[in-house]
Amino acid sequence: MIIHDYHPDKVILFGSRARGDDRPDSDIDLLVISDQEKHLPRYKRGLRLRVKLSDIRVPKDILFYTHEDVARWQNVRQSFVATVIREGVVLYER
């Protein structure tokens, strides 16, 4: 669904599931790097996907960043983006 609808360049799993210290109630954290909805504010990106996945009862946090967002923050050592890139698990890369 993410690949088909948003044509991302990269999808990264981060957080406890990526580190391997997740619990049964842990959420799934994904960073999707795509320019598909770059005209929208970050909080509105991926809204269609969140609606489609709303029936799936697994807690999830799916964040959409553009290439510009990533370029701006990837070299700032303590930034969220740099941490995800450094510690996350790439699930998909074009």
Describe the protein.
The chain is α+β, with helices and mostly antiparallel strands and 94 residues long. The protein has a single domain, classed as Beta Polymerase, domain 2. Helices cover 32% and strands 23% of the residues. It has helices spanning 2-6, 16-19, 47-52, 67-73, 80-87, and strands at 10-14, 28-33, 60-65, 89-93. Strands 3-2-1-4 form a 4-stranded mixed beta sheet. Helix 3 (47-52) links the parallel strand 2 and strand 3 (60-65). The radius of gyration is 13 Å and the shape is globular. The relative contact order is 0.27. The mean pLDDT is 93. Residues 7-94 form the Polymerase beta nucleotidyltransferase domain. This is DNA polymerase, beta domain protein region. It holds the Pfam family Polbeta.
How much beta, percentage-wise?
A: 15-25%
Let me know the number of strands: 4
| Integer count of domains | 1
Measured as a percent range, the helix fraction is: 25-40%
InterPro entries: NT_sf, Polbeta, Type_VII_TA_antitoxin
Organism: Vecturithrix granuli
Domain Polymerase beta nucleotidyltransferase: 7-94
Protein name: DNA polymerase, beta domain protein region
Features:
alpha+beta; Beta Polymerase, domain 2; four-stranded mixed sheet; Type_VII_TA_antitoxin; Polbeta; NT_sf
List strands and helices in order, with pairings:
Layout: H1 2-6, E1 10-14, H2 16-19, E2 28-33, H3 47-52, E3 60-65, H4 67-73, H5 80-87, E4 89-93
Parallel strand pairs: 2-3
Antiparallel strand pairs: 1-2, 1-4
